[in-house]
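tokens incoming
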């Protein structure tokens, strides 16, 4: 019986990685998962960025910037973009957009970012932001971004935020943009712990695409995903390694062969519950909470690993599901991002 926790070949592929230069953010959002002391700190480790870019797999051509709020430290943001561009990659960014209230020239700021390799701009829009940009202000940011050729996207939390998204779409600023918005469950962690449930999905449904979106934190840790519950990650399998100790290429190669992470990606959090022989609780919260309630407990992680190791057909099922997902169903990059990526590669090749 093959009891190895790893496949002899990758079960899934990574297409990009997410990087947080700092946890710094000036906002006071009710749903923020970042501890207050970390949000107040502007600490940035240049060597983490350099190690991540120098040792990342060559096929990973996109770096997704997050935070904290990347635009809160504008000079550093531009320096990070420059480093990513020098490495032969392009960048996307998720922002709360609050910087636009103080920017004298929104279009100029975005044009500088585009020239330094930024290809996509995602703006958070929901009822939980404090302070919150008005719909018209966000429309202006997105309009400026689209005018210069950036791909744009809206990220919203919970069903109650969909009315804001509808108002924004009614302005026409997202017209013609493929997949203009995404909605996510409210994760009740940190300041949001006392908020009411606000869900958009069921935890037992489908693949977990997030398991294929690794994140490099400001201190160099490489996490399996960028879940709002990331501060509860206490070790493997959710902590994949550290770029200050190993190359990002080695870390991600190892992770892509993990049957456990493959099970998360192929079966979803609900699938993990079933592997434990349990029923999904009726008082369920979110997909992330269901996943971390298992994968942050060493005894449950070991139990799931043993179930997978003892069942060859299950391992084949995991690999087969991921193969079909990769070939038929896995979302492609937005056409706007792919176009800019192709253009960047042509310039780099020339």
């Amino acid at each position: 019986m093959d009891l190895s926790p790893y496949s002899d070949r990758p079960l899934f592929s990574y297409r990009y990685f997410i990087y947080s230069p700092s946890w710094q953010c000036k906002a006071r959002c009710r749903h923020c998962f970042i501890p207050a002391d970390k949000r107040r700190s502007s600490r940035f480790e240049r060597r983490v960025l350099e190690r991540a870019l120098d040792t990342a797999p060559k096929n990973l051509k996109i770096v997704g910037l997050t935070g904290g709020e990347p635009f809160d430290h504008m000079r550093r943001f531009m320096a990070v973009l420059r480093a990513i561009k020098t490495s032969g990659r392009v960048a996307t960014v998720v922002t709360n957009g609050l910087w636009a209230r103080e920017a004298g020239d929104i279009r100029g700021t975005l044009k500088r970012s585009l020239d330094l390799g930024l290809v996509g701009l995602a703006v958070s829009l929901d009822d939980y932001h404090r302070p919150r940009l008005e719909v018209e202000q966000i429309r202006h940011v997105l309009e400026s971004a689209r005018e210069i050729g950036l791909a744009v996207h809206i990220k919203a939390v919970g069903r109650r935020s969909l009315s804001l998204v509808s108002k924004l779409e009614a302005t026409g600023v997202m017209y013609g943009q493929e997949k203009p918005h995404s909605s996510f469950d409210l994760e009740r962690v940190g300041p949001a712990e006392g908020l009411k449930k606000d869900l958009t999905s069921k935890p037992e449904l489908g693949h977990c695409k997030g398991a294929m979106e690794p994140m490099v934190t400001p201190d160099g840790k490489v996490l399996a995903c960028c879940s709002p519950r990331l501060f509860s990650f206490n070790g493997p399998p959710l902590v994949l390694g550290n770029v200050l100790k190993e190359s990002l290429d080695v870390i991600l190669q190892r992770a892509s062969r993990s049957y456990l992470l493959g099970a998360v990606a192929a079966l979803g959090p609900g699938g993990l519950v079933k592997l434990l022989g349990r029923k999904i609780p009726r008082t369920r919260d979110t997909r992330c909470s269901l996943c971390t309630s298992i994968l942050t407990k060493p005894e449950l992680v070991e139990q799931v690993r043993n179930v997978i190791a003892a069942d060859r057909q299950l391992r084949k099922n995991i690999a087969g599901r991921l193969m079909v997902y990769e070939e038929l169903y896995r979302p492609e990059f937005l056409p706007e991002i792919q176009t800019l990526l192709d253009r960047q590669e042509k310039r780099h090749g020339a």
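note: The CA atoms of residues 153 and 251 lie 30 Å apart.
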